[in-house]
Amino acid sequence: RSTLDRSSAASDVYKRQVQDVLASQLLFECGVAHVYLPGFNVGAQLTLSLPDMKEFVKGRGEIGDYLYFLYTNNPLHKQRGVLDQSWRTWVIWDVINIAWLINPNWVPTKIINSSSLDNELYWIKNDNNHLIREAFGVNRDEIFNDFFKKLNNLK
Question: How much is the pTM?
């Protein structure tokens, strides 16, 4: 189940601003073959710290410098009133997609029946739905080791 509080006004704002509920419902119910790479609990493990960014990203080509800039000028931190981000980590969500394509062993998956998603963003388990592939973990160290090597080649 989602961690959203059903009674929370903040939950409604989150759904309207961040989620495309109808598109998500369609994707999970239409029967199309797909790989679901959950952000929560799976992709969220792909975090980097300021020391990581300074050591392995900054100065590694234009993309490395741009990622470092985004880290140190994260608009979400400003939006949420975070004044000191020196001790915070940053989730690089999109890395999971490329990591699975580069090496599926870095993002272990299993075949499951697709769940449905209700209007409140809660999962509804249905053992009769079509099958999908769902990630259940990440090998963070292998993924970032590969990423840092590729960035290093851009110096």
Answer: 0.79
